[in-house]
Specification:
Mean pLDDT: 84
Low-confidence stretches: none
Strand content: under 5%
Helix content: 55-70%
Shape: globular
Number of strands: 0
Number of helices: 3
Largest sheet: none
Structural class: mainly alpha
Order of helices and strands: HHH
Length: 73
């Protein structure tokens, strides 16, 4: 998958991967269709950051969830 391209499929893939990695409880609240395509680079940066780490502190998870919220439309 070429995540350098801004496509709805790539957004969906990255959002789902972030949710899976963080094991987010409120999965229904985070849907790929809610994300602003103009913020693709920011979502990609967040995705790369999340994928590099093996574990997250509660404060890191809160910050990531907050950032996801900031990227929504």
């Amino acid at each position: 998958m070429d995540l350098t391209k801004n496509t709805p499929e790539n957004v969906e893939y990255m959002v789902n991967a972030i949710k899976d990695k963080l094991r987010m409880m409120n999965i229904g609240a985070v849907k790929s269709s809610h994300f602003n395509v103009e913020m693709y680079e920011d979502l990609k940066f967040l995705y790369d950051l999340v994928m590099k780490k093996n574990s997250f502190s509660p404060s890191e998870m809160e910050a990531i969830a907050e950032e996801l919220g900031n990227l929504k439309k």
